[in-house]
Every structure is written in structure tokens, then in C-alpha cells.
Design goal:
Strand content of chain B: over 45%
Number of helices of chain A: 0
Structural class of chain A: mainly beta
Order of helices and strands of chain B: EEEEEEEEEEEE
Number of strands of chain B: 12
Distance between the termini of chain B: 41 Å
Distance between the termini of chain A: 36 Å
Oligomer: heterodimer
Structural class of chain B: mainly beta
Strand content of chain A: over 45%
Mean pLDDT of chain B: 94
Number of helices of chain B: 0
Low-confidence stretches of chain B: none
Order of helices and strands of chain A: EEEEEEEEEEE
Radius of gyration of chain A: 13 Å
Helix content of chain A: under 10%
Largest sheet of chain B: 6 strands, mixed
Number of strands of chain A: 11
Radius of gyration of chain B: 14 Å
Shape of chain B: globular
Mean pLDDT of chain A: 93
């Protein structure tokens, strides 16, 4: 089954404790992306990657890191989480071109709470 | 920079009736994709419909159709014969076809379906 998986689904942590949210896709997509969703703000793109070792900032990259060492994986790293990073996080993937129209496939979301 | 605006935070529709959700966007590009995504209470992001800017014909998917007005930079979603399962948050999104690979989402419209 074609899918994007994220782990963990729920995470409660404390300020300053480094954490990683994993994202993996099995569709051989070149493009992967991370979003955060906050009430009234919609989805905002944090980082995206067009292929292995190619990443770029979205609209809200501060406080986050990413890496793309393998095509299928795109982890999101919070090296020193703060309460303002409490949010719902989505990973997504898509093809870069062709007839797909850049349709993104989303993971199930990770609810992160930083106290 | 591109922007996407959804001016209706919340809408209601009677079951079996028709409702239209508004979306406007701003861009200087001529070639791009527009999307409507649905987010039910499960939080899963589901693609509803996609429109390619170079196509004049409005996209349709069963009970869902769009009114794409390129000159006015408007991309509204019409849901016909509304069903209880249509109740969700709906997001409009923009994606350039070339150049930057960012996705831009609107802030969402919460649709309530009344029985």
C-alpha cells in the first residue's frame, strides 16, 4: 500500500530536549516536505527536499533541521524545542513532475506538545 | 511571493444542498497548480480536486467542482448534494509549476453539514 508514515504520532516533551520525528514514504517520490498546522494559520511549510541531499527552507524554518540521506526518509529534527513549536506536524511527498500534477500524499500527522 | 486567501473561516450547509467555498490567490506566475484538500476530524489530509492553470476547463470530481477564474485569481470549490461525510476543514493550496518548489496553503474553511 502506497503511504507516508510518521513516528511518533503523539509526543509530549520538555523545553530543550532534542527530538526527531521520522517520515518515510514507499512511493519513490523525489519531493518530500514538512508542514506545521496551527489553528487559524493553516498549513505552513517548514522545509522541503527535491531529492537526496537537496533541501530548502519553507516559510517557517527557524528552530528546525532536516536531512535527506535516503530517498524514502526525511526526518524533522528539533534540536532545542520550545513551547511555540507545539503544533500538529505533517510530512508529505510527491513526484516532482509528470502527470501527477504535484499531488502531495500526506502522513497521518504528529501531535507535538512542548512544555 | 505567492499568497492564498480563504476568507470564510466557517460555512454551514444543509444536507443535500450545494455550498461554495472561496479561495483567492496572488501570484505573478502564469503556470501553476491549485488544489483543494479536505481534512476530516481524523486529521488525514485528502486531495479533493486539482486544477492546472493552463487548462481553461474547470476540474470536476463527482460532486466536487471548481470555478477557476485565472484573470481574477479565484479558485472556488462547489460541493453539490452535500453529505454528512463532507463535514471537514477544507484547504486551498497553490504550487508553482516551475522555479520555487514551495507549496502555499490557505488558512482553511471549516464546513459544517446540517442534517
Amino acid at each position: 500500500e502506497a503511504q507516508v508514515t510518521q513516528n511518533p504520532r503523539y509526543l509530549i516533551t520538555v523545553t530543550g530536549k532534542k527530538l526527531t520525528v521520522t517520515c518515510s514514504q514507499n512511493m519513490n517520490h523525489e519531493y518530500m516536505s514538512w508542514y506545521r498546522q496551527d489553528p487559524g494559520l493553516g498549513l505552513r511549510q517548514i522545509y522541503y527536499s527535491m531529492n537526496v541531499e537537496v533541501t530548502d527552507k519553507g516559510d517557517v524554518p527557524e528552530g528546525y533541521k532536516v536531512s535527506r540521506k535516503e530517498k524514502r526518509n526525511f526526518p524533522l529534527i528539533l534540536e532545542s524545542p520550545s513551547p511555540n513549536q507545539t503544533s500538529l506536524y505533517f510530512c508529505a511527498s510527491s513526484l516532482l513532475g509528470g502527470g501527477s500534477g504535484y499531488e502531495q500524499y500526506f502522513g497521518p500527522g504528529t501531535r507535538l506538545t512542548v512544555t | 511571493a505567492q499568497t492564498v486567501t480563504q476568507s470564510q473561516p466557517e460555512m454551514s450547509v444543509q444536507e443535500a444542498e450545494t455550498v461554495t467555498l472561496s479561495c483567492t490567490y496572488d501570484t505573478s506566475e502564469s503556470d501553476y497548480y491549485l488544489f483543494w484538500y479536505k481534512q476530516p476530524p481524523s486529521r488525514q489530509m485528502i486531495l479533493v480536486i486539482r486544477q492546472e492553470a493552463y487548462k481553461q476547463q474547470n476540474a470536476t470530481e463527482n460532486r466536487f467542482s471548481v470555478n477557476f477564474q485565472k484573470a481574477a485569481k479565484s479558485f472556488s470549490l462547489k460541493i453539490s448534494d452535500s453529505q454528512l461525510g463532507d463535514a471537514a476543514m477544507y484547504f486551498c493550496a497553490y504550487r508553482s509549476r516551475s522555479g520555487t518548489y514551495k507549496y502555499i496553503f490557505g488558512t482553511g474553511t471549516r464546513l459544517k453539514v446540517l442534517a
